[in-house]
């Protein structure tokens, strides 16, 4: 807040206050206005009898009372509440920037009210310009459509059917007959021209997909789709379901001598024919 304080504005305010009141503030701006005497005399110049009692005592509470009366007089003069300052802002140098803003706003309000001074300071407040229209003029304005809402110039309702009636859209170029009833399909929904249901079965009937080249005939509901592949060329000959399969190499299973004995023993055990036990010959 201290950095926002403008020394140039302080010099302008000093000149303005001294020119209006005829009093000297002194070298220190804050100390010259701290007691509130000069400020109260300023308000009495701007608005006579706005501050009825001015305390010239050196006691603190008398000086604070002067500042409070000055602030109340500024509010009654027409100042905005946001432009006012508090007594401690000036008395204790708490916020001299706000004090400067308030005094500038007071100078602008005085200029707005027509005060003539040798110092041009403050911004003049905007004046309210009220318009009074008679009742006939107000009613005529209710029929005017604002430009923000667009315009209905060049618009036409020719060809429009009654409100609530369904409108059928069709294009004679596509050889679509004019609508005869409410079942007409709009062009926005596409067209079913050149479409055919030839070969279609009844809705809900299962359709079997088969390929005549693969020999798959359309016999029953067990036909397999081509997406499931084909079992053509597959053979299950030699497959024994549920029985163990012994895999051996005849090179390592010699026939004869001890192997025949082993095979004979194997035949007695109930093993399937053609299975040979392998037994190495011991070398002595």
Automatic annotation (TrEMBL):
<dbReference type="GO" id="GO:0005925">
    <property type="term" value="C:focal adhesion"/>
</dbReference>
<feature type="domain" description="Calponin-homology (CH)">
    <location>
        <begin position="7"/>
        <end position="111"/>
    </location>
</feature>
<dbReference type="GO" id="GO:0031032">
    <property type="term" value="P:actomyosin structure organization"/>
</dbReference>
<keyword id="KW-0009">Actin-binding</keyword>
<dbReference type="InterPro" id="IPR036872">
    <property type="entry name" value="CH_dom_sf"/>
</dbReference>
<comment type="similarity">
    <text>Belongs to the calponin family.</text>
</comment>
<dbReference type="InterPro" id="IPR001997">
    <property type="entry name" value="Calponin/LIMCH1"/>
</dbReference>
<dbReference type="Pfam" id="PF00402">
    <property type="entry name" value="Calponin"/>
</dbReference>
<keyword id="KW-0677">Repeat</keyword>
<dbReference type="GO" id="GO:0005516">
    <property type="term" value="F:calmodulin binding"/>
</dbReference>
<protein>
    <recommendedName>
        <fullName>Calponin</fullName>
    </recommendedName>
</protein>
<dbReference type="InterPro" id="IPR000557">
    <property type="entry name" value="Calponin_repeat"/>
</dbReference>
<dbReference type="Pfam" id="PF00307">
    <property type="entry name" value="CH"/>
</dbReference>
<dbReference type="GO" id="GO:0007015">
    <property type="term" value="P:actin filament organization"/>
</dbReference>
<keyword id="KW-0112">Calmodulin-binding</keyword>
<dbReference type="InterPro" id="IPR003096">
    <property type="entry name" value="SM22_calponin"/>
</dbReference>
<dbReference type="InterPro" id="IPR050606">
    <property type="entry name" value="Calponin-like"/>
</dbReference>
<dbReference type="GO" id="GO:0015629">
    <property type="term" value="C:actin cytoskeleton"/>
</dbReference>
<comment type="function">
    <text>Thin filament-associated protein that is implicated in the regulation and modulation of smooth muscle contraction. It is capable of binding to actin, calmodulin and tropomyosin. The interaction of calponin with actin inhibits the actomyosin Mg-ATPase activity.</text>
</comment>
<dbReference type="InterPro" id="IPR001715">
    <property type="entry name" value="CH_dom"/>
</dbReference>
<dbReference type="GO" id="GO:0051015">
    <property type="term" value="F:actin filament binding"/>
</dbReference>
<keyword id="KW-0597">Phosphoprotein</keyword>
<keyword id="KW-0007">Acetylation</keyword>
């Amino acid at each position: 807040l201290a950095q926002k304080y403008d020394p140039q504005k302080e010099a302008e305010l000093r000149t303005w206050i001294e020119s209006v009141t005829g009093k000297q503030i002194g070298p220190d701006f804050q100390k010259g206005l701290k007691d509130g005497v000069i400020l109260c005399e300023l308000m009495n110049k701007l608005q006579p009898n706005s501050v009825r009692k001015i305390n010239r005592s050196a006691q603190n509470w008398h000086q604070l009372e002067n500042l409070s009366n000055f602030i109340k007089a500024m509010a009654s003069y027409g100042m905005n509440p946001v432009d006012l300052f508090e007594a401690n802002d000036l008395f204790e140098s708490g916020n001299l920037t706000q004090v400067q803003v308030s005094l500038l706003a007071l100078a602008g309000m005085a200029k707005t009210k027509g005060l003539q001074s040798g110092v041009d300071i403050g911004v003049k407040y905007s004046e309210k310009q009220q318009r009074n229209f008679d009742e006939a003029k107000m009613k005529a304005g209710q029929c005017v459509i604002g430009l923000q809402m667009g315009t209905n110039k060049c618009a036409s309702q020719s060809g429009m059917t009654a409100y609530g009636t369904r409108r059928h859209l069709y294009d004679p170029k596509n050889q679509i007959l004019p609508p005869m009833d409410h079942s007409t399909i709009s062009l926005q929904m596409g067209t079913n021209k050149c479409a055919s249901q030839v070969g279609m079965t009844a809705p809900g009937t299962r359709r079997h997909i088969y390929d005549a080249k693969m020999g798959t005939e359309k016999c029953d509901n067990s036909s397999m789709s081509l997406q499931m592949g084909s079992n053509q060329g597959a053979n299950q000959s030699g497959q024994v379901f549920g029985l163990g399969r012994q895999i051996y190499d005849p090179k390592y299973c010699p026939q004869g001598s001890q192997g025949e004995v082993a095979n004979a023993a194997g035949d007695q055990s109930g093993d399937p024919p053609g299975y040979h036990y392998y037994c190495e010959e011991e070398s002595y």
